[in-house]
Specification:
This protein is an alpha+beta fold and 458 residues long. Helices cover 37% and strands 32% of the residues. It is elongated, with a radius of gyration of 51 Å. It starts with a helix and ends in a 10-residue tail after the last strand.
Length: 458
């Protein structure tokens, strides 16, 4: 009997507690309870994200114009070299022999040129002598002609004999033959002059060729010691001491790649963006970074009001430094799309120069996430995006207010119609509030409305 009394007392206490909780404390299960956010003021940025590898501003392949055995490699991967630093040293013996041969060939060509020039001077003297002989023989021929004609006149009057007439004719013929011989000698001297001039031209060309060969040989000799032409980091060394190097100028393969350097004075990321984002990337890119397509840059320059928004500034995130953000700038937007391997998606390469002062510590080859801010709103009123609701075809938010007096509601709410702007998925810009109610910073906004209890519990 006593057990039944205790059981009845326990049941009564449980039933009474449930009634009090339902009546006074209004216990609601978690799934039916609302959730809240707050009205805030701040910035909203809508990014487009793309990935790319951190690259050097310039990749430099080091080859040698010389051939020979490697006798010293004073650098290794990761070495930073200043301009003028020694990268590689080859034996000089073979290239020195080549220089000596080229020097001898140049000396020989120079001597032959001097000899050819002497021949020209001899030919000039011969021409002068032949011209003098021709002039003298022209005078003698004129005199013989005069005497012949005079003797003919005398012979016609009987004042000169037939022998005088024959002698005068012979003297004239001898003078004419001598003049023709002198003219032949002049023509021969002029021909020798022309030949000598051609020989000089040929020898001058030979001297130029020999000089160029000597210069090339001297350059190859200098290339037996290779120096860095600019500050850079050594990223790859492909040769070792004792190996033979093939000249880069004397083979079809372009020579042996000795090492690779990376110019890290500037670093960049080449990020690929989807075709659907190409237009929005163009809208934020500096004019100089736009594709050099006919009329594109001119059309953008005409929209003066948009130039101020074309800073091209982007944000970079790198797994190697998860707590840091880095800044970059759009340097070039390529106009030619590329088909993404393994899919039908067309993507465009966007070159981003890393402009952040902390960029020096970014490792080459690391993957970077590039965020392009294509839309933004600065210092605006924001509400949680989950709080944007629709009531009777009108968009707005439900704000938390005290329940109506006498109502059975545990949470009070009021719908405030709004016009919304930019959203990043987490918060949404409130452009304006419609109607008589206002929104204030820190005001509670329903992100999840409470579940209305059914009447079955009454």
């Amino acid at each position: 009997m006593r057990k039944w009394v205790l059981l009845l007392v326990v049941v009564a206490l449980v039933a009474g507690g449930w009634y009090l909780a339902r009546t006074f404390w209004r216990v609601t299960p978690l799934w039916a309870q609302p959730k809240f956010g707050k009205v805030t003021r701040g910035d909203i940025r809508v990014p487009i994200t793309a990935a790319g590898l951190i690259q050097a501003n310039q990749e430099i392949e080091i080859k040698s114009k010389a051939s020979g055995e490697v006798i010293d490699v004073p650098v290794r991967e990761g070495t930073f070299v200043a301009e003028g630093a020694v990268l590689l040293v080859l034996k000089k013996v073979d290239e020195q022999r080549t220089v000596d041969r080229a020097q001898a060939e140049q000396d020989r060509a120079t001597a032959l040129l001097a000899q050819a020039k002497v021949s020209i001077e001899s030919a000039k003297a011969a021409i002068l002598g032949a011209e003098a002989d021709v002039s003298r023989m022209e005078a003698e021929l004129a005199m013989a002609l005069f005497e012949r004609d005079k003797v003919r006149d005398l012979a016609s009057d009987g004042r000169a004999g037939e022998q005088d007439k024959v002698n005068a004719e012979q003297r004239y013929n001898v003078s004419a033959a001598t003049k023709r011989s002198a003219e032949a000698q002049l023509a021969s001297a002029q021909s020798r002059m022309n030949d000598s001039e051609q020989v000089v031209k040929l020898q001058e060309a030979a001297v130029r060729i020999a000089t160029k060969q000597l210069e090339d040989a001297q350059e190859r000799l200098r290339e037996t010691t290779i120096y860095a032409k600019q500050p850079a980091i050594v990223t790859d060394v492909t040769i070792e001491k004792g190996m033979l190097v093939q000249s880069g100028t004397g083979s079809f393969t372009g020579g042996t790649i000795l090492m690779r350097l990376a110019d890290v004075s500037n670093k960049k990321v080449i990020a690929r963006v989807d075709e659907s984002d190409f237009g929005r990337i163009l809208n934020i890119s500096p004019i100089d970074a736009l594709p050099d397509l006919p009329g594109l840059r001119e059309a953008v320059k005409a929209g003066v009001q948009t130039i101020a928004t074309r800073s091209g500034t982007v944000k970079l995130l790198v797994d190697a430094f998860p707590d840091d953000e880095f800044e970059g700038k759009i340097d070039l937007v390529e106009p030619q799309g590329k088909l993404n391997v393994g899919s039908s998606i067309i993507q465009f390469d966007v070159h981003v120069t890393i402009s952040d002062a902390k960029g020096d510590k970014l490792p080459l080859g690391a993957q970077a996430q590039v965020e392009f801010t294509v839309e933004s709103a600065i210092n605006v009123m924001r509400v949680p995006s989950e709080g944007v609701k629709t009531l009777q075809g009108q968009r707005g938010v439900y704000i938390s207010v005290p329940p109506e007096p006498g109502s059975n509601e545990q949470w009070g709410k009021r719908f405030v119609p709004c016009r919304f702007g930019v959203t990043d998925g987490e918060v949404t810009e409130v452009v304006s509030v419609q109607g008589e109610h206002k929104l204030e910073v820190d005001q509670l906004v329903y992100t999840k409305l409470p579940v209305v209890p059914s009447n079955d519990d009454d």
